[in-house]
Amino acid sequence: MTAQPAHPTNAANLANLANAANPADAANPAKQIRNVCLLGATGSIGQSTLDLIAAHPQRFRLYAAAAHTDVEGMLRVITQGRPSVVAMASPDAAQALSARLVAQGIGGVTVLSGTDGLNTLASAADTDMVVAGIVGIAGLSSVWAAAKAGKTILLANKEAVVCAGALLVKVCAQSGATILPIDSEHNAIFQCLGLQYRCFTRPLEVRRLLLTASGGPFRTWSVQQIRAATVAQAIKHPNWSMGQKISVDSATMMNKGLEWIEAHWLFAMPMDRIQIVVHPESIIHSMVEYSDGSTLAQLGAPDMRTPIAHAMAWPDRMSAPSPALDWAQLSALHFEQPDPERFPAIGLARQAMQAGACATICLNAANEVAVAAFLQGAISFGAITDAVDDSLQKLAPQMPAPQTLEDVMAIDQELRLHLAATLGLPAGAASGQGRGAGGGATGSGGPGTLGGPGGTVASIGAQA
Ligand code: NDP
Ligand code: MG
Description:
This protein is of the alpha/beta class. It has 2 domains: 202 residues, Rossmann fold (3-Layer(aba) Sandwich); 208 residues, RNA polymerase sigma factor, region 2, helix turn helix motif (Rna Polymerase Sigma Factor, Chain: A). The protein has 18 helices and 11 strands. The longest helix is centred in the last third of the chain and has 19 residues. The protein is globular and about 55 Å long. The site of magnesium ion has 4 residues, from helix 9.
């Protein structure tokens, strides 16, 4: 075991890594094993992906993993998946992780830090496939780096598309990057569009996309009950097990609003040809209605390992440890229209999309800040959509249209500061760098550091 210098730069860490032989490549000259870069490795999407990599060691290898602050979680990822390189967005967490690796005698793992470190992993030459599982706009910069590098991107991070859809379409067209949706609804639509379909193109002979929604935990509640809902009630999704932010988004149905915009960009369809249908059983994950009147649906148990496995193996198929549907138990499938009065989030998403790119950044920023404030007990459940509504009316019209990624990040940051002040939160609480939305800024991102040289220094784990 060779100890590394205490504080090499990200660049020096990467140089060391480039010199290290990849045993998987050596054993497979034809490179049948694909190197996965897992962004958001410590989260719910991260764990589902790790399960699939573990189930298919002959097809995939965890090459790189990234998270924000969760050192213990990243240690579990390293023990389970043995990546060559990891990155923590928080420099302090990267330092702490390096120290833990040395203390535990775990070698062979390079540790990078900061947004720069994450972007490096996402665009590294050895990365074959990027799983974008970071929550919130915090994931945008690494999705962008992967897109610019022409990678295959398995996209869960819907907020990146909501905030920068038009720009991502362009950068993927320039680089040849491939987007494979793993958000379950979008993956379902992608499956129903057939093997020849590619994202960002208008599908042929399609009348409508039907985006299903579970309706969340408050589907049958009154407006008064919903507005007074507690955190415990909001994060208890009836069908899916997910991270906290998306669980609250499902409860407000903002998740469906964000997915509506996501579907608009991914499938190049106008919003009015994408219909939201509430389907409480979450068995049909979405549908495509063709011009000949045929409607194709994708069905499955509500388990994210199915859409992720589909995208990992695409254009082939591979097994996933998801449960099979039990047709004896499935006596009926139900469908309803979403109620705009009890769930105003869907209408807000439409308004934002009609108003333009700046308004969708505003929709997302207001929602991230308000959800974080709700989870911290600072505002009520009903105040989440009130804050989004207020921001769309008052703040979005004042912002210039974004032309670049840096513009998107700058607009997002400015909106967060306004929102923090409006909601009476400390400014740091509104940073986009926390788990989901605003939980603890680290200064590891923002427009000033995007793609810039010399990311924050992290120490390095011992080399085996
Ligand atoms: P989780 O909260 O479970 O995990 C979030 C992950 O993002 C963690 O690894 C976290 O790291 C990381 N992260 C948070 N902030 C940052 C940051 N600033 N820099 C780097 N990493 C960061 O979320 P989910 O897995 O539930 O969701 C992830 C994304 O996937 C979301 O966009 C969600 O909408 C989407 N999605 C999720 C589904 C699900 O079933 N969970 C289904 C469909 C879409 P750390 O642990 O260190 O904080
Ligand atoms: Mg979804």
